[in-house]
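Exercise 7 asks you to align residues with tokens for two separate proteins.
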Amino acid sequence: MEKVINFLGTFFDINVFSITRLILAVVIFVAFFILKSLLARVIIRIFGVKGKENIRSNSFYRPLKLLFISIGLYAALLTLGPTEMMRSFVNKAFRVILIILGTYAVANLVAPGSKFEKAITKKMTKANDSMIRMICKFLKIFVYIVGVMVIISELGFNINGIIAGIGIGSAALALAAQDTASNIIGAFMIMIDKPFEVGEWIKVDTIEGAVEEFTFRSTRIRESSNSVVAIPNSTIVNSSIINWSRLQKRRISIDLTLEFDTSLKKVADVQNDLLILLENEPNIIKDSLYVKFNEIKANGYNLKVFCYTPIINYMDYMDYLNTINFKIMHTLNNHKVNLAFNSQSIYLKR
């Protein structure tokens, strides 16, 4: 028992320490532990959430619960009558905990998926969602870095010396991570230039598919085969990008090669009927339409059908192209005109 008292004496003033104080300290800690959720809800209701919004999704809910547990522990330790050395340690530890919880709360506030991101997205209607998400990630990392610096300062270390050391270390790290640095720079270039957004269908060199995710290091594209390809951002900024999702119109180009035994009158009649057919189509841009007898090929007379349609969606475009092809073939059948085979006639001289 004497050893226990001597051990406690290194942390608490034995003249003040008593069973009554111990029970009171336990009661204080347990009370804060039990009431932590209620207190956090009250604070959030007063300063933040209104109506039927879910409090648990609030950025400050979990940090506030941890804060009240910390306050309960802090108050309990002070109730036990700590020595000057122990009181100094408890005070410093409590301040560090406050900094950690404050950093945690602010990081939650600006994190991707937070109310902060949704508010910015709502106000900046023309902004790239990927860009806003990247900014939120950067702000979260920045908040944690600032929090670590404040904690180091609170513990009594010289920040200036640490920053200088970090500067030298960063130079060495930058040399060892040039690819990573170039990818991050590439990410910012993509955010500024905005050649694509998440969900759009693009082609980068030989890779084509829907943009699934955009990060500091790479852009992930899901190809039509359902495989995901991660392309480094530095590669993307140095490549030509085709964004199929930003088409204003799609091209329809069809070559119809009629057999040589087709009379020129029938060629003209087919040309005229195809022109009338397409002029009456509501999804054809009339200014772009032409049907021309443009070439005499080795196997027949070629009619070039060319126009644009405002249908952008690829599957809708393919459905419409299917309809147009059937109508063209019905027109050819009505005139009893056949398409020529891709062949040549060879004549032997005796």
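Second protein for Exercise 7:
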Amino acid sequence: MRDVVRKTAKTQTMKKLISIALFFWLAMANAQDYVDLAGAYLRYAPMAQKKNYPEQYRTIQHVALEAKVPFILKNKNVFFIGTESSHMTLFNRIDMPNGGDIIIPDEYAFVNLQFGYQHNWNEKWQSTFVLVPKFISDMPTLFDGNHFQFGGVLLVNCKQSENLTWRMGVYANKEFFGPLLSPSLGFYWKVNDKLQFDVNMMNRAFLYYRAHDRFWTGVGFRGGINSYGLSEEDVYLEKVDNNIFVFTDVFVTKNLVLNLRAGHSILRTYRYFPEDEKVDMKLALVNFGGNRTKYDGDIKDGLMFEVRLIFRYWLSKEEPISKDLN
């Protein structure tokens, strides 16, 4: 009987410690009421025609898994580690003169680690620094040392009020096309219990509307730039993927969130360049220096669909608030 009591006490103590740790992690992370510990998503872009190549088409399929673990330090500061793995397949269809067609799949992947530190300077100011080493390539030589990249993120938050937080930061990475520098400026604004804005200029913007306690909807924009080294050819792939979409968040349970998105790409490009031709620097979408030879035709913009499944740990006893911060 005593053993059972001891085990029960230990279990309750462990739960309390986990709750306290996650509470401080939350307090450091933009005043959120939750932390997303794990997630998985599938993105699909139906067949779109290549520009200048009317007989060629491309379909895009993207699958990813991600997770993070926080560790509480002194003075309520937080160290965290995370990881994300992604697999992307480009299905290239070529219409043949005899009326048939062939489909050639190209597979790409990346695996990264995230080492982050969040420091709470006072009740108003908070900063976050994250190092992101990763391997990114086509599948045969994913962990080849030639396909290693190293980047980092610096973020600063200023909490003006309970409902308004300003954000500024910069992301830097050594891409295969050269150094990438992407500054950001944004804010989180809770207008009221039903309407919220979450904006980071340059790469993301969300408007949320709370239609029901377990159902949120809204519109969003998400953009991104990265590059993949190739194992056989002396080329690299530069991907610019920007999408505007409508979304819904459905709470299957309190901790399991189903996020659905449907939208359209904007200025989408998937271009191949010789590996020895680079830019001096890319500032967001603007290239500085370099005269590169483009090998492959861009695909036209088209539809996109995405499904996300998120494990969300709530630290507030209030009703769930579904803000997609990925």
